[in-house]
Design a protein that fits this description.
heterodimer, A: alpha+beta, four-stranded antiparallel β-sheet, three-stranded antiparallel β-sheet, 8 strands, elongated, B: mainly beta
Chain lengths: ~160, ~130
């Protein structure tokens, strides 16, 4: 709360500046610019600034198991159809993403969404990138990555 | 509109878990709840189970959803490199409102999503009684 004394001070300052011809002139020139700026900042919806869909994309939980000859990545992505999931390999990057049509539902309580997800994994050189397979079952996407021949364990016989 | 803590959560979760991974193992499924005119829907994200693994029961005023599945035994040569989720054993309960008809609960499991539908009591809308003044 502003006290009465301060209010009077502000009022005095105000009248003093307003009557000063130089201040009045410059402030007048900038007024529309400032006005526009304020209008722009406060009238832009948040989802115009931040990408709505990108924001709603979640990072799914992953389990990774190493077998003798391969790795298995299991992603928890419930509520997707397998046609909506895409898996791509670019250089050493395995990118798994999914997109669902967003539904207009009013939730009473919300803890998760399945509008979209994206997660990427760095692949080591010991993985054969040409033999990646995937399957989707009960909400779990399993991606199998074969090891290259030289990375598989070898038994050396003693002669 | 947006749920601000949710957004912050998502931004923070994404960047942190993307860069360093996470040590946290998710074992309790997340739930969404929708209220329709005639029923409630509880939607649980529990990937990796079969519909036989779920146990859904009503006790007094709470709906209890649980699963108790033996973990799949891995071959000896397998090593777990990362473990961020495991829903094989969980229990979650929800308080049922008085308007919910506990005799009419249906459940469905599809693509890792368990949907439980609870009808509202038919007479719940008539529960408010107006008294005439003579």
């Amino acid at each position: 709360m502003i006290g009465i004394v301060q209010k009077i001070k502000i009022y005095k300052m105000h009248t003093k500046f307003k009557t000063h011809p130089k201040f009045y002139h410059t402030a007048g020139a900038f007024a529309p610019v400032i006005d526009n700026l304020i209008h722009e900042v406060f009238n832009t919806p948040v989802n115009e600034v931040v990408n709505e869909k990108g924001l709603k994309k979640t990072t799914p939980a992953a389990n990774i198991i190493e077998f003798e000859n391969k790795y298995e990545i299991k992603l928890a992505v419930p509520g997707f159809k397998k046609e909506k999931i895409s898996i791509s390999i670019e250089k050493n990057n395995l990118v798994i993403s999914g997109d669902n049509e967003s539904e207009e539902v009013k939730y009473k309580h919300r803890e998760f969404n399945n509008i979209g997800f994206k997660r990427s994994f760095n692949l080591s050189d010991l993985i054969d990138k040409s033999s990646v397979t995937a399957s989707y079952n009960n909400g779990i996407l399993t991606v199998s990555l074969q090891k290259v021949e030289q990375a598989k364990p070898k038994n050396i016989e003693i002669i | 509109m947006y749920n601000v803590p949710n957004i912050i959560d998502q931004i923070l979760n994404r960047t942190i878990s993307d860069i360093v991974g996470t040590d946290f193992t998710m074992t309790i499924p997340s739930a969404n709840i929708i209220e329709h005119d005639h029923d409630y829907q509880i939607i649980l994200a529990v990937p990796g189970l079969d519909k036989e693994d779920f146990k859904i029961k009503v006790e007094k005023n709470s709906l209890i959803v649980s699963a108790d599945k033996e973990a799949i035994s891995l071959p000896q040569d397998a090593k777990i490199k990362r473990n961020e989720f495991n829903f094989s054993k969980f229990r979650r309960s929800f308080n049922l409102s008085e308007a919910a008809d506990s005799a009419s609960i249906k459940a469905e499991y599809n693509d890792g999503i368990l949907t439980i539908t609870i009808d509202k009591k038919k007479d719940s809308e008539e529960a408010v009684k107006y008294v005439k003044i003579d």
